[in-house]
Design goal:
The chain is of the alpha/beta class. It has twelve helices and ten strands. Strand 9 and strand 10 form a beta hairpin.
Length: about 300
């Protein structure tokens, strides 16, 4: 079970706090503009396949009697990356778990409102949660490969657990290889597929989990702070991978790292106390936000 925002570790919470000698608001804006300018200066490749869009309409969520989300409405455009930012406890992780029906698995978890994938309500009475989760994959904060399974079996497990059509044994290796290639990991592990998944480095384990998520050919990939436990080099590789994956999938990423949001996201949503404060193209959020609270957050005045 993924932890809620309110149970973040002190280390993760402190990562969102402004450091001593933190850059000024003007310096942060300049850095954001540089990041965004450099990222958009490269011609964005045409999508390799058309992903499906999602939309949340007036989504509310509770943990028992405690309300965590207070009417979130947000679109997720196909083949684009949407970042969710905000301080710890604001509801980001709760919201992203609502997007693939994982929140209802938490004791006392309850969701109201509507979430659609390609126009179809994923909370409709005839919607199968297992099928929904196969179409909307999830990558968690910390790498979580199956500890007793090999690299190969970790990826294959995604196919076996998805509840979808059974993959023929003759096709299984091809699917595993294509998923590992899609996660940018194949060249590093192709000669040791039988080694334990836990034998990989932290960054490799996270890419293994991404391979497991995309093996079932989802429409959307959700990432809940996928780099929070990784070093800068592994973080950069995951960000490069996100840029590649957007050619095939719609991506939603939760992050506390403002520079990361600026680097990877097309659009950014700022959340506070369970509410959506502002949603706009990433460039606008970081350089010319409409709400004063957004500006205070992205420039490190709180959070």
């Amino acid at each position: 079970m993924a932890p809620s925002d309110s149970t973040r570790t002190e280390t993760e919470q402190s990562a969102a706090q402004p450091a001593v000698g933190a850059p000024s608001a003007a310096e942060l804006r300049a850095a954001a503009q540089t990041d965004l300018g450099e990222r958009r200066a490269d011609a964005r490749p045409a999508p390799l396949q058309t992903a499906r869009g999602m939309e949340a309409r007036d989504v509310l969520a509770w943990y028992g009697a405690s309300q965590a989300l207070k009417g979130i409405s947000l679109p997720f455009a196909p083949n684009q990356v949407t970042a969710l930012i905000g301080p710890s406890g604001c509801g980001k992780s709760t919201f992203v778990r609502c997007l693939n029906r994982m929140h209802e698995e938490i004791p006392g978890g309850r969701v109201e409102g509507q979430i659609t994938l390609d126009g179809h309500d994923i909370y409709a009475s005839d919607a199968d949660p297992v099928t929904v989760r196969s179409k909307i994959g999830m990558v968690f904060q910390k790498p979580n490969p199956f500890p007793t399974k090999s690299i190969f079996d970790n990826v294959a497990a995604g196919l076996k657990l998805s509840g979808g059509k059974r993959v023929k044994r003759s096709d299984l290796r091809d699917r595993v290889e294509s998923s590992l290639r899609g996660a940018g990991l194949w060249e590093e592990v192709k000669d040791r597929l039988s080694a334990p998944g836990m034998s990989l480095s932290g960054g490799q384990q996270q890419r293994l989990c991404i391979a497991r998520a995309i093996a079932v050919e989802p429409e959307v990939v959700l990432m809940d702070e996928p780099c929070s436990a990784l070093d800068p080099v592994a973080t950069l590789r995951i960000e490069e991978l996100i840029h590649e994956l957007r050619q095939r999938y719609t991506i939603v990423i939760v992050t506390h790292n403002m520079q990361q949001a600026a680097r990877v996201a097309d659009s950014t949503a700022f959340m506070l106390s369970g509410e959506l404060v502002e949603f706009a193209p990433t460039n606008k959020i970081f350089t010319d936000p409409d709400d004063e609270r957004t500006e205070q957050y992205v420039t490190g005045k709180f959070g």
